[in-house]
Please model this.
Amino acid sequence: MAKLIDGKLYAEGLRKRIAIAVAELKRDHNLIPGLAVVLVGEDPASKVYVANKAKQTVEVGMNSWEHKMPADTSEADLLAMVQKLNDDPSVHGILVQMPVPKHIDSAKVLNTIDPAKDVDGFHVVNVGRLSTGQDALVACTPTGCVMLAKDTLGDLSGLNAVVIGRSNIVGKPVAQLLLTENCTVTIAHSRSKDLASIVRGADLVIAAVGRPEMVKGDWIKLGACVIDVGINRIERDGKNKLVGDCDFASCEAVAGSITPVPGGVGPMTIACLLHNTVKAAAAIKGVKLPEM
Ligand code: NAD
Model:
């Protein structure tokens, strides 16, 4: 039976360390890190994410601003909002909640954010810095995955890591981070042939597919570490349920360690966002980043 990787507990600990770092920045440098979140439209899931981000930002002692814009906001107005936040010295982190309405070019929006304030890590400059091994603001969910893997396995050097999914948000950046950790990285995706046999070679599996319970226990090498990024809402026995991309029961029977859904990777994302905001604030002010 696999060890359960408790992302909720790890994220709680990380938020406590972040709160201490925020207090130190306030005391030593009169610096209060601030995160501005922009939400365009009324997507119910996005509203919940944004509210959670704001709540946790305030809980660690940082400033939080929510900018709600109507669904018919023009691209020009959204870009103007981003520019205003770029120019505001009290704002150290800017996050435009994705997805934005279809009439807006999301890449243009992301690339308008000042890279120094790009706490989501999606600006091409930060993506480029990550892939060339330079200091970068790195996407939050991938950072959370690697934190949990390192906390569970220790040094990841030399491990065979298989990432399922090649999105810009999860798959590609998590693969880059694992490469930085000296893993041998395979990225599998919807066109990969014989996915099961690719996954069977993995010491570390990162599943970021968005397909409920797709990865089965007989794909998993005995003792492997399984990090399940998927968040899928399904109906089972007449009830709504959240499940991951891995079939938890069969994977748990074979894996050495596994993240549950919910309570695994999910809670890490906001904690890493707060972590990035503190990092951005210290860099912008030119002061030493406290230990977190
Ligand atoms: P996405 O749809 O952008 O990308 C999915 C990837 O999976 C694609 O690259 C595709 O090639 C691959 N894929 C699709 N079908 C496949 C198949 N049959 N076999 C192999 N590969 C296949 O999704 P995303 O944004 O990367 O998110 C992935 C999952 O992670 C979703 O369930 C999402 O909800 C979840 N997610 C969770 C968090 C979190 O905070 N925990 C954050 C972001 C995403």
